[in-house]
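The material for today's practical consists of a large collection of protein records. Backbone structure tokens are a discrete shorthand for how the chain folds in space. An example says more than a description, so a record of this kind follows:
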Amino acid sequence: MNRVLLVLALSVATLPARAEGLEASLSDWGAVGLLQTPTARGMPDGAVTAGLTALGGLHRHIFTGAQLLPGLEVTFRDSTYPSWHGLSEPGVDAKLRLLREGPWWPALAVGGRDVTGSGLDLPGKGRFAGEYLVASRRWWNVDLSLGIGWGGLGDYGHVRNPLRFLGGRFKRDRDPAKASSRGPEAWFTGERVALFGGVEWHTPLEGLSIKLEYSADSFRAQQQDDPNFQPGLPLNAGLAYRPWRWLEVGAGVEQGSRAMLRLAARFDPQQDVETTPPTPPPAVGARPASPDAALPAPDITALARLHRLPARSALIDGDRAALWLDPAGTGTAPLAQEVGRATRLLADGAPPEVEWLTVVTGGAGLDGTAVTLSRRAVEQAASKRGSPDEIWRTARIDRSAGPPPDWASRLALTVTPSAEASLFEQSAPLVQRTYGDTVLTVEPLRGLVLSGGLRVNISHNLHLLDTNAIPAAEPVRSDLPRYADRLAAVERLYAAWLAAPSEGWNTRLSVGHFEEMFGGVGGEALYRPLTARWALGLDLNRVWKRPPDDALRLAPESGRNTGHVSLYWETPGAATTGVLRLGRYLGGDWGGTVELMRAFDGGLRLSGHVTWTEGPEGAQSRYGGRLEQGIALSIPFSPGGSWPPDGRLAAAVRTLGRDAGQRLRQPLPLYDALVAAGYGRLTGSWPRLMD
């Protein structure tokens, strides 16, 4: 076996990369890999998976995962196994790519299983925890991988831990029966480590690959539970097949005698979301012969709405014409495409003396950007004699174009079917809740938002939540089953006033029922310079619990203060935003949240978050833990803009019914209202201006 690993090592190090476009398949654990072992490969950016794996009578894995960043893959998993206490083992697995594959070097990644170490400290609960460093090298249709594993990934202990010079736990035995064998404090510890590796051959049959691997997992914890347990051979063989783009089937024989079957659904936002404009862009003809032949401002606004643009007002003043779009950038079209179509309408219908066209983008009555373009440059680009790059040379970007002459009221109906699931329970492998929200939003004046929503509960099995075992005296969200038992209830009913008191500053004041569990009063301030890729926000709220048996009442004895300081950082184009929040949560616990938000063409949104707090006093079930985490996916299924009803399909895998780390679900955060219409999204989608 050592000779086999040596051959793999030499191959990984020396063979030149020759094959491109071969998509990696999933492992038994739900992450990209071979069978039991990981590789340095990842999914396409933004891809999401969900499925289950059965390995003989030994393991059952229910999993969901996402490629949150091009180099970061996160998988949530709940695993069952033969044990005397009958509990499942939830876990969070992560992989970070350190190095892309090059002409003469392999791809390199570091990662781990059960990286958070959450859950009860029962014997053997660290059985799946382990870390690894793995390299992958592709040669034609063959992908070779070789890695070194710690913890459960290195049970065979071929060599001593290369980190033993750090002393302490890096030189001691890592016993899976002990709680110290998992979690951040156990990362890369243990007296010995082991090598693993394998090969995946992408066959000539499209979608079919064959896998062979050597695994260094000796199932040590299972042997501790059952002295008669036989781990079998460390060699595994199997195949993965994708009959359709959205489905992957896996099968194999592992440890020499155990059959494996895996079924997974896959979703790739860059392939499975329609990004082609549903209608052709407005035509730009010759300028009107006289001012009388041009369209007046109200007609331009009405025409823009017919083209599915969220037009609220228009202005013609001398050599300048302006059109206000609000909410801009929230539909399926990129922001620059909306701006381009608005400028086409202005160029086609404005009086002949107009030379400058301004489109103001915003949200909830707040201005995001005001982009002013040369009419002549737009006319040339529309007739294929120019380009967005040439238009940019004479463009001017401002925060605002001044107050609009009028402001049309807006009525929006949003329908959101939602499914939430938890893979973080130890009493059940899967807990779910399904419901539908119908929200009516009215904006009678600029900056004034009135909104009401009805939630219809469809199904749930929330009685299986771990937090039901020992109910909290003062629950925050651990009484979620009582809210889900209702057939229908008012989910939100609030009013908000938004304003821009000075350059770069935006504020919001809200009052009412913000979500199904809490209502009260809240305020928020956001500082966001026009061209900056960062923003700083502060929100403060005084809220009360809404009793589940009376949807419109606030329990007077349940008042609490909550608020956070939030730092936002955007990548160029603002398609990805990282958020760091620090503050006080609904249970009175202090802590922080790290959040990642992604936006893709077609209006798809993907996000992930993790929260750690000190744990609330008096409101924490001992089974709840202090970690709150989740992945959410939102897909539009209607054009959006000013054409109701707007609709989105929402799905999330997250902790449900917890008391620690619970933020108020504010329905109108300032950053969310402005980022879609901001400078980053405009410049990031600028090549789509004339689409």
